[in-house]
Structures are given as structure tokens and as C-alpha cells.
Amino acid sequence: METNTEKKVNIKGAKQEDIMSPWKVVWKRLKRDKLAMIGLYTLIILVAVAVIGPFFSYAMEATDIENINAAPSMQHILGTDEVGRDVFARLMYGGRISLSVGIVSVAIEVLIGTILGGIAGYYGGVVDNIIMRLVDILMCFPFLPLLLMLSAVMSARHVDPKYRIYVVMFIIGIIGWGGLCRLIRGQILSLKEQEFMQAAEALGLKDRRKIFRHLLPNTFASIIVSATLSVGGAILTESSLSYLGLGVTPPTPSWGNMIQCAQDIYTLTFQPWRWIPPGVCIFLTVMAINLLGDGLRDALDPKLKR
Amino acid sequence: MRQYITRRLLEMIPVLIGVSIVIFFIFQLAPGDALSGNIDPKMSAERKAEIRHQLHLDEPVWVQYGYWAKGMLHGDLGESFYYKQPVSEVIHTYVWNSFYLSLAAFILSILIAIPIGVVSATKQYSVFDNAFTIIALIGISLPSFFFGLLLIKWFAYDHMIFPVSGMRTAGSSATGFAAFKDVMYHMALPLIVLTFGSLASIMRYTRSSMLEVIRQDYIRTARAKGLREKVVIYKHALRNAMIPIVTIFGMSLPGLFSGAMITEQLFNWPGIGPISLIAVNNRDFMLLMGINMFLAVLTLLGNLIADVSYALVDPRIRLK
To answer: Which among B67, B95, B90 is positioned nearest to B79, based on CA atoms?
Structure first.
């Protein structure tokens, strides 16, 4: 018996070794989905290059004055920009920025969305009403105009370019949680009527424990899918804002603001190495995330027959 | 039904008040006021104070909000500093250009996406289905500004098939059909960008709705009766599968006026997008507030239209 207890996996209740944990089941299903795996591997490669690559390349601000606006060559594999900075190096630094904006802003979204969604669904009544009206207000803003408004205020306050990236993360996160909040609330509403919640009630658990240990873990599947897809959306949003000059601003490179140079007709037509690579990176990243997110949705949905 | 609509309209009031408060106070976060921005530097301090007084800028924030809200109830959104015109007039001038472009894209994407969605559903997991699932994903993943830049490079500069930007040929005095042709010619590239971006959602919506319907008993009955597959799919299934699609029309309403901001900016299409960015860059906060308020109202109306039209086409839905 002792060996048996040792083999128990310590996640969310006891699970025997020979019974597959839910996460293993999901992973097994996901592995069968070719598109999702392509997405996953692409993503791993992109993240690895962005994180590790800069250690082996030119510095972000290093200028090569002899090669300004140089076409791709052995020395600079993606050429250089208007002050002789290596495009490939900036692409990797930009990747760090764009990816972290995506992840952090979604983390903010998920944090606010799940907590408020959980509270609204569990308590109902006045609390629910207040939170849901807040969501209504938030959701009736078209996304981009609201972002423009906030960026206008940010620009008017002359935020230091160094800190702009944090403000951008915060803005994207703070206006994006409405959808997730509604989703979680809906699920909690039906979950709290189930028997295991009666058991929790009978055990006399505290509200906080009931919400965070018993109700919310049951919504993990939707949170994960929604969060994954949101990272793609957030990266797109950041790049659009930065392209318009309202998000992350130079000298900090981001994939979006690197494409800004294409607003110049000469660069657009004759120096494609300066703006096509960052565009392709945004596309590949978001595409990979969407493929993975779709795959996860299928893998996490137990009702799905395939 | 009338009762339902009235109730929903009444429910909009608190939400709109909330929206207006949020919009107003976001701009209070900005330091200074309209007069500290791009204003004639030769203006004397007294004159500034005078204008501030006229615009109630010297009063407490909540009083200012009161004036703004009161104006809105009379349909007065204030005065745009950049355009030196009432905000509602600026919106009116530009919003229709946005509307025509977005409407064209919307119709085009429906015409393309619904047939593809239907075929995808009837041949689930076929090569056709998988290919278009991937194309749809590409459509969502490709940043619109990047796609637009690629199109501009290839079609406008390298091959000179379409114009680079604008809505009409400069200096053109064409009228009637020639003018229409000129606008269409300018619209082509932004139309491609917008359509490609919105194909995916309609396609997936149609596909999943259709998949649900063809599993229903009455479809099996129709097949059992010996009806031809074409009749089963296009007459019996499609009609019911279209019901949820109806809601897309309502949901798209605010998008028809605002969804194309970045594309419009890219192609210099004289719509809401470029003027919003001009407003951002010139601290024309009155105009931004007006645009946001206008779009918020449209969003709420769009949701209502979506719900009501759903009930109209589907007798199983009862609105209470």
C-alpha cells in the first residue's frame, strides 16, 4: 500500500499511475493534431531565437556606418536599416518585445477576467449585476478607437519611450478582459449547481476556497484556449499600434514599429528587407498561436468526437 | 416584441451613461486641455482665459462633464478644434466613406464565405475543408497593415495596376458612372485587405452552423424521403443554417463604421480611421470623444438588432 501512495500524482486529488492524468490525455490528443504541432514547434523555434539569438548577434543599437541601408549579405543576413543597424538583430530584439507584450497583456486579461468572472458567477445578485454592467460598458467600445484614445492620452503625458512598452501591455490587458469574464461567469453559473459544490458546501469551505480551488479549476480548459488565442490577438494589436506610432516607439524595436519604415515609398519599393521580415514574423507567430489554440480547443473538449 | 425592444432601449441608458463617463474621464488623464496643445502662440493670456471660460474649462471636472453630457442629449457633440467644425458634422462628412468601403467588403466577404462554409461543412475534413480552414486562419493571422503594404508594393508600385491611395483621382471632375468607376478603382486594394480579414469568421460561423443542422433528424428524414442531396443541403439545411448568420449583420454594424481604421489609414481612404488618427496627433479630444460615443451607440444598437432579427427569423426564439 505504501508504494501505491507514493505513486499517486499530487495534482488535484489522487490519481493512480495507470490512469492517465487529464493533462496527459490532452497532450496525447494534441500530438495527433498535425497542424497544432506545426504551430507548437514554430512557436518554440520563434521564442528560442528571440530569447537566445541576441546573445550571438550584433547589439541592438550597434551601427555599421559603412553599410547603411545595405541589402542582405553574408555580413548582415537581412541587411541593415537607415543608420546601419543589423535588421536581423533588431528583429530578434523586437521579437522579445512583441512576444512579451502579448504574454503579459494576456496575463493581465486572464487575471482580471477570471477573478471578476468567478466572483460574479458565484455570488450572483448585486455583485454580478455591477460586474456585468462594467463588462457591458467595456465591450461596447470598439477595440481600436478605445486604444487610440488611451494612446492619445499616453502621448499627451509624454511617457518615456522606455516605459511605453509597459503602458502598452497594461492598456491592452485592461480593456481586453470582458469576453473572458463573461465566459467564466457563464460556466461558473452552471458549475455551482453541480453535486461537488453541494459537497463543498457540506464541508463548510470558505467562499474563497470554493471559488478558487473548486470552481475556477473546472474552467481551466476555456481559460487556456481563450488565453492562447488572445496572445495572438494582443501581438496583432501591439503591432498595429506600434505601426501607427502609438504603441512601442523607437528606439525600442518591436515588429510593428520596424514596419513603420515602409511608410516611406522608397523603402517600400526598393528596400523590402527592412519591412518584410518583421511582417512575416508577426504573421508566423500569430498563425502558430492560432493553430495551437485551435488544436488545444479540440484536445481539451471532451465532448468532441473525432 | 415592442415591449422587449422598449426594455432593451431603456437598459441602454445606464450603459451609455457609464460609457460617457469613462470616455470623459479618460481624457481627464491627459495633462492640460485643448488650449495647451497646438494653439496660436501669439494668443494673449486673457484671450486664453476667455476661451477657457467659454468652453467651461475653468470649472470643476464634473461640471464640465455635465455640460458635455447635456450637449449630447441635444445632439451636440461639441466643437472639433482641428477641423473648426461641430464634431457631429465632421463625423457626418467622413463616416459615409468608411461605410461604403466596409459595406462593400462585408457584402463581398459574405458572398465568398457562405458558399465556402457550406461546402466545407458538407465535405467535413476533406482537402477542400482543410485548405480553406488554413486560408481562413491566414486571414486572421496576417496583420492588415502588412498585407496592405504588400499589395501596395506589388499592385500599385511594381505593376501599377491600382492606385496607391485616396478615394478619387486628384483633379478628376468626372461625374456619374465615370466617378463611380474611379472610386471603385481606388477601392480595389483596401477592399481586398478588408475582405480577406473578415472572410474567416463568417466562413467558420457558416461551417459550424451548417454542421449542426445536417446532423438534425429532419435532414435524415429529407434524405430518407429520397430527396436529391442538392435539395437536402441547399433547400432544407441551408435555410436553417442561415439563422445564426443573421446575427452577424447586427454585430457588424459598428464594424461597418469603424472596423477599417488601419486599412483606411494605410490607403489614405478619407474615412473615420484617418480622422481619428489626425485627432490623436492633434489632441483634438472633443472629436475623439464624439467618435467613441457614436461608435458605442452603434455597438449597442447593433447588438439589439442582432437579437431582434434572430427572433424574427427563428420562431423557436421568444423574446421576453
So the answer is: B90
> Hey, which residues does B80 pair with through a beta bridge?
B85
Q: Cβ–Cβ of A156/B32 closer than 8 Å?
A: yes
CB A8 within 8 A of CB A14: yes
Lowest pLDDT segment from B23-32, B98-107, B169-178: B169-178
Per-domain residue ranges for chain B?
Answer: 87-313
Domain boundaries, chain A: 34-56+83-299
Please determine, for residue A1, whether its predicted confidence score (pLDDT) is greater than 60: no
Q: Which residue of B has its CA nearest to A233?
A: B141
Lowest mean pLDDT among A5-14, A20-29, A177-186, B108-117: A5-14
Closest CA to A268 of B261, B188, B146: B146
> Which member of A239, A265, A290 has the closest CB to residue B137?
A290
Torsion of CA B64, B67, B72, B74, to 10 degrees: -170
pLDDT digits (tens, 9 = 90+) for B208-236: 888 888 888 888 888 888 888 888 888 88
**What CATH class has B87-313?**
mainly alpha
Q: What values do phi and psi take at B45, rounded to 5? A: -65, -35
Residues 6+ apart with CB under 8 A from B311: B1, B317, B318, B319
Of A10-14, A66-70, B44-48, B59-63, give the range with the top mean pLDDT.
B59-63
Q: How many residues does chain A have?
A: 306
Between CA A136 and CA A147 the distance in angstroms is 17
The residues facing A210 across adjacent strands are none
Please indicate whether, in this complex, the C-beta atoms of B31 and A268 are within 8 angstroms of each other.
Answer: no
Asked if residue A251 has a cis previous peptide bond (ω within 30° of 0), the answer is yes
Nearest to B102 by CA among B252, B256, B253, B254: B256
Nearest C-alpha neighbor of B269 from the set B167, B195, B155: B167
Residue B251 with chain A: CB contacts under 8 Å: none
Give the CA count within 13 Å in the CB-facing half-sphere of A178.
15
Q: How far apart are CA A74 and CA A78, in angstroms?
A: 9
- pTM for this structure? 0.84
pLDDT in tens, A42-54: 999 999 988 888 7
Alpha carbon distance B129, B247 (integer Å): 24
Which residue intervals of B259-284 are DSSP H helices? Answer: 261-266, 272-281
Cβ–Cβ gap A133/B291 under 8 Å: no
Taking only Cα atoms into account, the Rg of chain B, rounded to an integer number of angstroms, comes to 24
Asked whether the beta carbons of residue A153 and residue B254 sit closer than 8 angstroms, the reply is: no
Q: How many contacts does A have with B, using Cβ atoms within 8 A?
A: 130
pLDDT at B211: 87
Is the distance from CB of A144 to CB of A246 less than 8 angstroms? no
Domain A34-56+83-299: CATH class, spelled out? mainly alpha
Q: What does R_g of chain A's alpha carbons equal in angstroms?
A: 23
- Class of residue B320 by CB neighbours under 10 A (exposed 0-12, middle 13-18, buried 19+): exposed
Residues of A in contact with B22 (CB under 8 A): 137, 141
- With CA atoms as reference, the chain A residue closest to B273 would be A145
